[in-house]
Amino acid sequence: MTAKMSYADVEVGTELPAQRFPVTRATLVQYAGASGDFNPIHWNERFAKEVGLPDVIAHGMFTMAEAIRVVTDWVGDPGAVVEYGVRFTRPVVVPDDDKGAVIEVSGKIAAKLDDDTVRVDLTATSAGQKVLGASRAVVRLA
Predict the structure, then answer these.
(1) How far is CA 4 from CA 57, 80, 96, 142, in A?
(2) Per-residue pLDDT of the chain (142 residues; tens, 9 = 90+)
């Protein structure tokens, strides 16, 4: 695949389409099975509360993966992501109800770099609180 977005067509400040990602307890169980991360803080409410959490929380790597989807969907090629990193600031708390939680992610071109690459800064929140800090991706454009 090749990136669908052209370096010449973007400017610093260009906003990527924001997205909302629902997360339920079932989502966490599926992710645990795929990742092999069966830490009980991600599925056992009693255990999560015993260790001081407000409830079951989403896996950090799951949250990180959902956030980068804003970039990969926009650019049209997951292979265009050259670099990606975040700082985990708050957990995504996932209640045991029909709604679960929602991770809301937006992104903006923060810098045009060399070799047809751009730096995208992401903002990820859940329940009105920032859940990822210093969330940045370097992406190679067409």
Answers:
(1) 35, 10, 39, 6
(2) 778 999 999 999 999 999 999 999 999 999 999 999 999 999 999 999 999 999 999 999 999 999 999 999 999 999 999 999 999 999 999 999 989 999 999 999 999 999 999 999 999 999 999 999 999 999 999 9
CA distance 64 to 122: 10
The tokens of 142 are what?
Answer: 């067409």
> 120: which residues sit within 8 A by CB, 6+ positions away?
16, 71, 107, 108, 109, 110, 136, 137, 138, 139
- Residue 35, SS3 per DSSP: helix
Rounded to whole angstroms, the Cα distance separating 11 from 9 reads 7
For 85, the 3-state DSSP assignment is: strand
